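#onboarding

Welcome to the new folks! Below is a worked example of what a typical request in this channel looks like: someone posts a single protein sequence, and someone else replies with the predicted structure as tokens. Don't worry about understanding the tokens yet, we'll cover that in week two.

Example request:
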Amino acid sequence: MGRNRFFILSFACTAVVLLVGCGGGGPSTTPPPPVPDFSVSISPYSASAVLGSTTSTVTISISPQNGFGSPVTITLQGFPLGVDAMPSSSFSIDPGKSQTISFSVSASVITGAFPVTVLGTSAALSHSVQLMLTTEPIVSVRTYQSGSVLYLESTANADTARIGLETQWGGSIVEMSLNGTNFVNMHDTGREIQAAQWDGNAQYQSGAFGWNPVQGGDKYDQGSPVLAQNLNNDSLYIKAQPYQWNPDDKGGGPGQPVLGDTYVETTVTAETEHAFTFKVHFKVTHFGTDQHADVLQEFPAVYANLEYNRFARYGGTRPWTNDPISFTTMPLLPNGSPPLYAPEQWAAYVDNTDAGLAVFIPGVAPYFLGFTAAGDPGPTGFGTNYFNALTIYSFGPNSVLEGDVYVVAGDYKHARQVIYDLHNRLPAVDIFTPLGTVDSPPPNSQLAGGVDVTGWAFDNVAVSKVDVYVDGGLAGTATYGGSRPDVANDFPNVPAAIGYSFSLNTRQYTNGAHVIEVKALDSSGNLAVFPRVSVTVQN
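Example response:
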């Protein structure tokens, strides 16, 4: 595609068998008795407050080991002047017990992120863990309109972050800037930060490009119409009806856009407890009566300017603990490559000064994809770096996908602490459907007798049920929980017990063409409808 919007989420999972041999022997010895000891833990690993306010609580716990039974003295070290620990900076905790603390931040404290050492001592034993304390400046907010763009500004000290919604392009986000530097690419209606919908049953290729309503507009730069807009003192609102990206095979073309069957509502507010941070609430309503199968949605797509080419995210197995960040310098892998593991549910594009744009999507599966389109840099140049979280969803009749996305401008280290505080404060959410496949039978196969319907499905919470349908009627419920370690080749750290299997008796159906459809339900009630499999029964 000329504008590099198009990609297909398609990964091959292959099995890997690891053979390990063990052997040997030798004389046995009696190990020494275990030494009594303790460990110190905290939850969460961060705390944040605006000047003149108080952080949320942090829990410090002491876990005894090997019969340890003495009190442990806790000392908090490293927070700046003007910050007071409550109840105090030194206290005692008994083994197996916990103590909650918070920090009172005066109006005169310097702003920044401060590593606070939580030191536990008991006689000659000592252990410590680190807490990150962030002090934020007071934020002021204003809104205004300039030309066709609605703006919301967040000012802290002498710095101003700004977000802008283009009313001529369906309210898509064409600006996320800090002190006048815009991080967002807005080369055409397919770029920006915006929502777009896809169908797992459709084909996306030249001449037959499937269902794809795009908030910004279509491939001819015909901007999606705005149905309603509102500029409040502290928020922006736009409701748009997206155009189909490719009108050519839907009765339209240049000068003749084709409306999609979705509405996209965008509400933007500033996070007043965090500098340079905005909450974008998306509500995508599919008012059609058809079914669009499970696939990666753009909720939202993020296009950053080419010079912000360091893709930052946490890629380890201890999320929310301030472990080191992972960086990938663009260009990243080609379209269709496996996603990158990101269990903290955020990613950022930054330059060599660590400045750029971070996006946090609560409740998303822990994977992000990205790619580069080479070309001229700058907000309106063709060159861009793209990323999208693994926002999987099935749009059925009258379904609604609704949730919050947080965008943070500036240094990724500040953005990460903002995201940590949001994660600590926000209730857990799960708005996306499970991800999975139907491995067998393959499409267009001929079936006879008993046939196994197999595949895999996983979710960021849990898959509660997998049902198999034939021609729209329920055939039965699959057995779920089979081992599928091969899926981890494409999705790192995914659980192994995600396979499903169902024995389908084809003799119940007439000879001829039939359609098999698998639906997976997660524990939050989100239903995934996997792409249809067309088969022929011949008994």
